[in-house]
Amino acid sequence: MANLKSSKKRAKQAVVHRARNLKRKTAIKSAIRKVQESLQRGDSVEMTQNLLKEVEIQLARAKGKRVLHRNTAARKMSRLAQRVARGTKNK
């Protein structure tokens, strides 16, 4: 356990930051899942594109807050965009 006042404060902040980061990561995973389910259901191209845009915004925000590394965010977005492009090509 922390002894100094400043280290106690940092420990409390770490708990809050960890919860906030976990919430952001969970939201990103849920948004990605929505896009994948939209592709499987065969939803309209516009709907899938809107969901993809939402994922892009969330990934950019997580990257800016350093919840995700910039290359990780770029890789996730690229792979999802490729999957959407393949899935909506025939429509």
Please give the alpha-carbon distance between the first and last residues: 59 Å
Helix content: over 70%
What's the number of extended β-strand segments? 0
Stretches where pLDDT is under 50 for at least 5 consecutive residues are none
At the third CATH level, what is the topology name? Methane Monooxygenase Hydroxylase, Chain G, domain 1
Structural commentary:
The protein has 91 residues and is mainly alpha-helical. It has one domain (5-88): Methane Monooxygenase Hydroxylase, Chain G, domain 1. Helices cover 84% and strands 0% of the residues. The protein is built from three helices and no strands. Helix 1 (5-41) runs parallel beside helix 3 (70-88) and helix 2 runs antiparallel to helix 3 (70-88). The chain starts with a helix and ends with a helix. The model has no long low-confidence stretch (mean pLDDT 94).
Summarize the structure.
With 91 residues, the protein is mainly alpha-helical. The protein has a single domain (5-88), classed as Ribosomal protein S20 (Methane Monooxygenase Hydroxylase, Chain G, domain 1). It is built from three helices and no strands.
What does the secondary structure layout of this molecule look like, with pairings?
Blueprint: H1 5-41, H2 45-64, H3 70-88
Characteristics of this structure?
single chain; 91 residues; mainly alpha; Methane Monooxygenase Hydroxylase, Chain G, domain 1; 3 helices; 84% helix; 0% strand
